């Protein structure tokens, strides 16, 4: 039985790794298309902003966590940097290898963000986009990212956040609660997965709180900037030398 033929798997805020991984396995084939539709095309702009923040260069080694099918990893690899696209969903990794297996400087690996299968001080930069809030222990994941990053290396986290404008936050909540579920039923093979998306966004901390958690994990020079009026925040940090 293929993932598309299985009963839809829906994660919850308990973020059991097996349930979350299974949910992403089932949506892997149409994941990128669905994200583009539901984000009204903004996912591509967020990817560009993240790539610029990482600032990959030839000769560097970069870890792209929660890489999904590897769309963000391909953008990084075009710089000439050696990129490892890692995800804990085997289905996502399989789809990524099918689509991008021939891209130079790009390799795929199945990995749990809370127990990374990499050595200390191995990467010049680590990035994670829209994946940290799906980890059952985000603080441990931030510590693991610190461990595998070289001293002076960079962290870039692109994640959903909370618009600071009350008026825009109300419009955003209306879209998420009323419009997104209807569209998801049309374009996704597992619309329930996008109910979880809404729940996880509402429960996720705001920009300042996440910045504080990144500092608590040992990172320095922590800063963030809002994208799309704060729907998304791009957090940056450095590993102490």
Fold and architecture overview:
The chain is α/β, with parallel strands linked by helices and 241 residues long. It has one domain (3-238): 3-Layer(aba) Sandwich (Rossmann fold). It has 9 helices and 7 strands. The protein has helices spanning 17-27, 31-38, 42-54, 71-77, 90-100, 138-148, 166-187, 192-203, 207-216, and strands at residues 61-65, 82-87, 106-110, 123-129, 149-160, 220-227, 232-238. A 7-stranded mixed β-sheet has the order 3-2-1-4-5-7-6, with helices on both faces. Helix 4 links the parallel strand 1 and strand 2. The longest helix has 22 residues, at 166-187. Residues 1-8 have low confidence and may be disordered.
Topology:
Elements: H1 17-27, H2 31-38, H3 42-54, E1 61-65, H4 71-77, E2 82-87, H5 90-100, E3 106-110, E4 123-129, H6 138-148, E5 149-160, H7 166-187, H8 192-203, H9 207-216, E6 220-227, E7 232-238
Parallel strand pairs: 1-2, 1-4, 2-3, 4-5
Antiparallel strand pairs: 5-7, 6-7
CATH C-level = Alpha Beta
Order of strands, main sheet, comes to: 3-2-1-4-5-7-6
Distance between the termini: 50 Å
CATH-wise, what's the superfamily? Vaccinia Virus protein VP39
Total beta strands: 7
Poorly predicted runs: 1-8
- Most strands sheet: 7 strands, mixed
**Tally of discrete structural domains:** 1
Derived structural class: alpha/beta
Radius of gyration based on Cα positions: 17 Å
The CATH architecture is 3-Layer(aba) Sandwich
Return the string of H and E elements: HHHEHEHEEHEHHHEE
Average pLDDT level: 88
What features would you highlight for this structure?
Rossmann fold; 241 residues; seven-stranded mixed sheet; globular; 9 helices; alpha/beta; 7 strands; 44% helix
